[in-house]
Amino acid sequence: MLKLDERDIRILSILSRDGRISKTELARRINLSPTPCWERLKRLEEAGVIQGYRAEISLKSLASHVVVFVVVELENHRAEAFQAFEKAVGQHDEITACWALGGGYDYLLQVVARDIDSYQRLMDALLEKKAAMARYFTYIVTKEVKAPTGLPLALLAGTPE
Q1: CA–CA distance, 50 with 23 (Å, rounded to integer)
Q2: Which one of 13, 62, 95, 155 has the fewest CB atoms closer than 10 angstroms to its CB?
Q3: Where in the chain is the domain with CATH 1.10.10.10?
């Protein structure tokens, strides 16, 4: 694991909220000259701490859609079942995130589909593929209350922001 100091944490915190910030403005915000700031940024990228830069897209501006969270229980807990399910999940772009869970359920999926019918076709396809699913529970998002706005890096690192 890469050792990060307070400036590294501040760089990451700023970038997690504003990925399009100029390098000059980033350097100014962390009180560092541009060249050392750029070197820190390159080091963080090369170490894989920064995995990429993305745009936040307003889906409601583009098309009607539904966001669904799905908890999944597998038929059994053998390695083959986990592998089959994870392989099947990777084949569907509508599944925008998938987390393996400890506790009562095995997985949590985030699905973005055109409508409920499209979502149900996806789930039917997973069941038909023998993806080792015993059962699943659907939770339809009715309103976004808080969207991801960056990570609480300073809190996680125990440093003031």
Answers
A1: 15
A2: 62
A3: 6-55
Catalogue the E-assigned strands of 12-150. Answer: 66-74, 95-100, 107-113, 133-140
Report the DSSP beta bridge partners of residue 22: none
The DSSP output letter for 76 is -
Kindly report, residue by residue over 73-115, the tens digit of the pLDDT. 999 999 999 999 999 999 999 999 999 999 889 999 999 999 9
Q: Tell me the residue ranges of DSSP E strands in 21-83.
A: 66-74
CA separation for the pair 59, 62 (Å, rounded): 5
| Residues paired with 137 in a beta bridge | 71
pLDDT digits (tens, 9 = 90+) for 7-43: 999 999 899 888 899 999 999 999 999 999 999 999 9
Write the CATH number of the domain with boundaries 6-55. 1.10.10.10
Q: Which CATH number fits domain 59-140: 3.30.70.920, 3.30.428.10, 3.50.50.60, 2.40.128.110?
A: 3.30.70.920
